[in-house]
UniProtKB/TrEMBL annotation:
Domain of life where this protein originates: Eukaryota
TOD1/MUCI70 glycosyltransferase-like domain sequence ranges: 176-284
InterPro entries: TOD1_MUCI70, TOD1_MUCI70_glycTrfase_dom
Name the UniProt record assigns to this protein: TOD1/MUCI70 glycosyltransferase-like domain-containing protein
Protein source organism: Chaetoceros tenuissimus
Amino acid sequence: MKIRKMKKRKMKKIELILLGMLLLLFLTIILNISIALDLKIVSANIIKAPDKDNMSMKNQRQHVFSSRETHFDLLQQQRLYDYSSSSSNHTESKEHDMKSMVSRNVSKPTLLRQAVGLEPRIQCHSPEKNVPWILDGTCMKDPHRSIFSSASYKRTCGLCGNGAEYLRELQEDIAKKFAKKCKELVVYGAALGSKYEQWMRSSNFLGDHSIKVVRRHGTCFFQFVTDVDHTGDLLSSDGSQRLIVIDPSRMPYKNNRRNTKILKLNPGLLFPWADRVIWQDAKLLQSNHGNMPSPKGLPSDYLLHFDRTVGRYGVCSSYMGLPPDKASVGDSSTVSFKAHCDAIIASAEKRPTVSDDLETLRLQCQHYEEMHSNEALQSSQVFYNRHPLVDTAFIVYDMRDSTCRKFNGDFGCSWLSEIHCFSDRDQISFPHVLASSGLRLSPHMQVTGQEYRDRIYINEKQRPMLHIAKRGCHWYYRSFSRCVASSNTHIDEEMIKDNETPPTTTTTSTKPRVAVIVAGTLNRFIFDSALKNLIKPMKKRASVDYYVSLSTARMKAYRSDSGYTDRLQPDPTLPSSSVEDFVDIEEYIRTKIASLASSVGAVYLQKSIDIDSEPMLIARRERALQEHPDEDPVSRFPIIDSRNAAISQRTANANRNLLRLHLAIQSLWETATNWEKEEGFKYDYVMFLRDDSLWLKEFDIRNLLSKGGDIFIPACDARELDDRYHENTIKLHLSRQHSARLQCEVYANFER
């Protein structure tokens, strides 16, 4: 009997298992039929979509379905995630969504994923994930959408609903007061906290930097504040920043960093009337240097900076590349997404204020790495190709045409959607939004050493849309605005003429300003001794700007037949370059100068200085050929030694090198004087140095100046190194006296 009962129980279990398997099979068949029907419906919708991009119906269908295999790979990846329902204030018909996305050239993976109605239901981990999405754009004719977001592609961004009533009131009040006055340019930031607000109301808020800014642009600089001290002030202490008081209790999030992102990442919501908008973190403004330039190297001419970034590359927005700094990537030797995540997480473990939820940060990093693990997808290639990481403390937006307004709006809306769902660290979500946007790196930018260079991302129509400035220009290196402009000196000179600032005198700082100008060849360049024994000690007494121009090709020396000149070795402390144009050496020089609290005025590394296109030299050579047709036309200028043919050829080599040297000096001097005009100051002292100057002892500029005089040159008859001559083995032109300044101009323009 017991055996029979056991058999019956066993049979019942088998029957249940079989029933379960049949049910699972039935559900699988139903799911496949549902997907097939959705594909059929979407196919019909796409065929009916308006032909806005001049694509035939056949091409539109091919555009969507040619990567069907990729689509199902994506579905498999998405099933790995824990889908959950996410809130959305507005749900539009599938047909409207598809038409909108086809017309906007949404990336194929995004389009395919959304075509089957399977919006990824990623599990949100934000501690404020249950806060309602207040940025309703349904009342707008063409609202901004979160179409690049993995959290939800159906969110809209606008100020339509009741939840956005406060922001709408804020926008209307700003427009009423400033739309007409500040239409050309708006620069804004947010200081939501007592620390920044007290600082902005202090007497030494910005010093001379703000004076120049206001003189050029008026007071179209805004800071959103909470007025925690209830002062009621509407201007910063120096009058440069208009303070817009917001009520934190009427903002959606408890965390003010999240509230700041609403103000920051979609400027068209608050300043829809502005042509150009620049976001500038309040922390970048802080300076204790009186009327000296901002230690971050911020521009004082923001329109000029706009032209040097967005204007130069014809893009809709410009960001600063993340530098290889400990604060950004920890001890990693490369700038990568993982290294940045690890650095932020490590910082958050020490300081809880870094993020409002450490575990959310970890899960977000893991989520993005898994989502972009398929190397065959373009989005993954963009995400991992030299890692498009940025520092979002300074963002430049072009809002002058509808294409840029739409792109910036959709990009910002998608970015905000990611922050709503995940961590409050916008730099973590930026590379994912960029990778999902359908943009790709311009083919012209895909060269060796790409990580050291500017990057331009283009859309499917090959239009440049987004710029990331080379990381060596980061404000950590104290030369932000000058570095961005360095490759466009002659164009800048024309723009500066229209907006020159009158010179100011140093009033709140006793430190003189010194320009160090070095020209020559990379092979002869001695850098380490100048760092240790010139710049480091001089920085204690002066504000130092370093200008250097180096040729990388080997040139024939004056005594090239003597043997030793062909065996010169570069400074062993300089790293070996891995790229043809030595852009990695440029970054090294910038980081080392900045490490000594000094600034780089310019770093020019080029294969050779072009002397054959100089008009004055062309005329000189033509005359020489007429007078001495059998000689090298360069053998008699600027020096002459024609005792015999060998010496004459040696002199020609020397002349070519001299001309290259002085053309390089002239170019650096023009850069330095342009910077003086732009910032409204005059250098107190200018040092012209050889490329192979070797500093054996620490240089004290006070000892030299105590001897009196305007111009100091080497004591050429001194053959022994002693204290008497050590301080005189440089060229130092004093520019305080008018006569000395004129002589400095003569030397810098010697070639002319």
